[in-house]
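User: Could you walk me through two proteins back to back? I'd like the raw sequence and the structure tokens for each, with a short line separating them so I can tell where one ends and the next begins.

Assistant: Of course. Protein one, sequence then structure:
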Amino acid sequence: MRPVEKIILGIDPGTNVLGYGVLKVEGRKPSMETMGVIDLRRCTDVYLKLGRIHERVLGIIDAFHPDEVAIEAPFFGKNVQSMLKLGRAQGVAIAAAISRDIPISEYAPLKIKQAITGNGQASKEQVSAMLQRLLHIPQESLLPFFDATDALGAAYCHYLQMGRPEKASSAPHSWAAFVKQNAQRVR
């Protein structure tokens, strides 16, 4: 019998640099398919950035056909404007996944770091190094941006959570599931 295959797309939202990582799971063995960044630093119009995020995330979805999306939740900081920008980028990436009816799970940065390194306060460098070891990623495949390994970290965290019953299963992970669970509220 052939092992079950699952593709998980991890996303680290950002309006200047958005990271993505694709994790392939065969049976219980994860491996990195790809990781990269969507570099939006040259684009100055905020709405054009959001449009490009949507377009590029859809392109990644169409290229790799993920079964699920794991997205990093915006980090709650003191700068409200930064939170708003990150929330918009996250929302656009989520909308892209919803448009393809892909289930979405959201993970706090602390949870991702804890799952990968055992330390919720780990640095981006520590997360990257641990993923490199766990997934046997060659040094030349690493990017100068930690956004890519952060996104791969979200996918790997989701992989670790897949078999755990404490994960909330009642929350809808797609628009279709939301409508089905809330038929009385949606017309």
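----
Protein two, same layout:
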Amino acid sequence: MRITELRKKVGKTDLYVEDLKIESGMIHGLVGPNGCGKTTLLKLIMGITAPDSGSIDYEGLRPSDITMMSQRPYLMHASVYDNIVYPLKIRGEKIDAAKIDELLERAGILEIKDQYAGSLSSGERQKLSFIRAIVFRPKMILMDETLSNLDADSEKLFREMVMERHREDGSTWLIVSHQWDEMNELFDKVHHMEKGRIVK
């Protein structure tokens, strides 16, 4: 993916990405202080927000190949299980109930799979969001502070799952995180943002 001359003004954030290459098959870190434009950049890549100017060359990636996990995930008014299988249903893919249960069990939410998703705690919501994002094996995954509300053991587990999934299918990850010490081991490449600019 190549991002060129990309501009977006949102409130006090004035994002300008002159030239950024998100190399495929790598785990990228996106770090910087609050309000520097990290989430805005992810939303632009995802197509949630339209740029004021500039371009994003997806290099063959389709919208259905990309998914995003946000810090406050949107959940359907349905069960945990129905939320998980939704990406498979809309893509017409086979639902392997046993494999889904295996993912849910590993994430520690199998016992609540029939529970209404809106009743989950913040940590459970993020676990659901993570499993829902990887269940259809997207080619590119955007993570916006998705692990921030997890306990230390769960956070470690999900870091391991990121690395495992990356090894299995060569997916591209762009991960926003303030937890530099814990997440740095994941990253093949790190992009630093300040005041809406990529500085290195």
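The helical segments are 38-46, 80-90, 97-107, 122-134, 152-169, 180-183.

Let me know if you want the two compared in more detail.
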